[in-house]
Specification:
single chain, mainly alpha, 3-stranded antiparallel sheet, two-stranded antiparallel sheet, 19 helices, 5 strands, globular, disordered N terminus
Length: about 475
């Protein structure tokens, strides 16, 4: 038997507030989800081509995985003690020719060179083994890129175009998922849109990287939590199953964010259809958090693959590193905070815009404007029914927990054994947490709906920021 929701009976009468009414169908194109799609397509394609081939962080390794998947290779191969895939030699040589570029005023990629490489033949009959330390990653995140590589190769299969086709596949998936997220979220559409169209988010969304699908599914989960909170009817088992499937898809794309799944439980237990549904949802989200890794790691371990090494000048062993820090856990906690103070500014900047192989940062003034923009949008949009203090506290607490968990993972699992400085940790890891953080930090329970003017200002703001970013990238990377 379904339960009524006593806590929201009084509030339900307010939900018909005229300022939150649906726009007239003649102006449907000016709804946030259509504006997002329009802006995202224009600048997403701009990023696909203005960003030199394989210049997003680790994109070469992700591309190898996507290309191998497009050819039906799921399990990596072993050769001379290394893991990787067999791919066309021309493709491997072209990808490697774009690696290690230290961009500067006098060192940029030539547009003329790119134009000439567009017609370079692939020569698929001549293959060689390409070692790739990330070849053992779960392949789900590469499906959109792999599909587009397969389709696009019919029209142009030069190595450069294969890289572009992969980016286009990732972009289409990124935009499609977030389109439905923005369409279905009842409030805070502007916040979700401005974060999803922020330079770092769209840059990763238009690259061959597992971040494209991971970011998109996390934004979708954010929208579902808000949707379930505001709906007048109880949360059903079907809705929980949908949430579980998207959490599972995100976890199969990239790990490190499962704590955000549990923001669902910032919603009062009485809002669920029954206690059975509530506790079943906890079980399902635990399954989504841990089962994909268990199944995939069991499969990979059965192949007896050698461990892929990204660097050879340090000892990288997560087991040994955890054991090392467990000997002095207080020191490990101190190291986390020490790294926050020493690298925090770079991480924050990186969550907004740090491009290429992390060498190219947006100017500080634009980083500050972006952060202020997120905060003001979260502050000014006030739905007729306010978020409760309990919801906001739990919601923000879990988001902050996930931030610290990511940093701890950087210390324990990414860094060399015994390192005091966290290695290879990027600010972009925080990008998908931004809507959770800014809603939790800057939402104030004071009615001040600005939906009408925000619907015009936010798209214009996104366009201006992305125009600057695309020109910035072109000036820094291409000549």
């Amino acid at each position: 038997m379904k339960k009524n929701i006593p806590a929201t009976k009084k509030e339900s009468a307010k939900t018909s507030h005229p300022k939150t009414a649906k726009p007239h169908k003649n102006f449907a194109i000016f709804q946030y989800h259509f504006l997002f799609l329009f802006i995202g397509l224009i600048f997403g394609f701009k990023f696909v081509f203005v960003n030199p081939p394989w210049q997003t962080n680790d994109e070469d390794r992700h591309f190898y995985n996507a290309y191998a998947l497009s050819q039906g290779q799921i399990a990596p191969k072993i050769e001379k003690g290394k893991i990787g895939y067999t791919i066309p030699t021309t493709l491997n040589e072209t990808v490697r020719s774009f690696q290690g570029i230290q961009f500067s005023k006098d060192n940029r990629v030539s547009k003329a060179k790119l134009n000439s490489l567009k017609h370079q033949p692939l020569k698929p009959e001549k293959t060689s083994f390409c070692d790739n330390p990330s070849a053992g990653f779960l392949p789900v995140a590469y499906v959109p890129a792999a599909i587009m590589i397969k389709i696009g190769s019919v029209f142009n299969n030069s190595p450069i175009w294969l890289g572009w086709w992969g980016r286009i596949g990732s972009l289409f998936a990124y935009l499609a998922i977030i389109f439905f997220a923005i369409k279905n979220i009842p409030h805070f559409k502007a916040l979700l849109m401005v974060v999803a169209l922020s330079p770092m988010a769209l840059y990763q969304g238009s690259s061959v990287s597992y971040d494209a699908l991971s970011f998109a599914f996390l934004f979708l989960l954010f929208s579902l939590v808000i949707k379930y909170y505001y709906q007048e009817t109880p949360i059903t088992l079907k809705q929980i199953f949908i949430f579980f499937l998207f959490a599972l898809a995100q976890r199969c794309s990239k790990d490190g964010y499962f704590i955000l799944y549990f923001t669902l439980f910032a919603i009062n237990i009485n809002k669920f259809e029954s206690k059975k549904v509530y506790f079943l949802s906890i079980f399902l989200l635990l399954v989504a958090s841990f089962l994909p890794s268990y199944i995939w790691n069991s499969y990979i371990s059965g192949l007896h693959l050698p461990q892929g090494k990204f660097q050879v000048d340090f000892v990288f062993d997560s087991g040994l590193n955890i054991k090392y820090h467990l000997q002095n856990p207080l020191n490990a906690v101190a190291l986390v905070f020490q790294n926050i103070f020493s690298q925090g500014k770079l991480w924050i900047s990186g969550s907004i815009g740090r491009f290429g192989y992390s060498y190219t940062l947006l100017p500080d003034w634009l980083i500050i404007i972006q952060l202020l923009g997120f905060a003001l949008i979260a502050f000014f949009e006030k739905p007729a029914v306010m978020l409760s203090l309990k919801f906001r506290t739990i919601f923000l607490g879990l988001a902050i927990m996930n931030v610290f968990a990511l940093i701890a993972v950087g210390l324990l699992l990414i860094s060399p054994v015994g390192a005091k400085s966290i290695f290879g940790f990027q600010g972009r890891y925080f990008t998908p947490v931004l809507p959770f953080l800014f809603l939790g930090l800057f939402y104030l329970p004071v009615f001040a709906d600005r939906e009408k003017w925000m619907k015009w200002i936010v798209p214009v703001y996104c366009i201006i920021v992305l125009l600057y970013t695309s020109n910035f990238l072109e000036s820094k990377f291409l000549v």
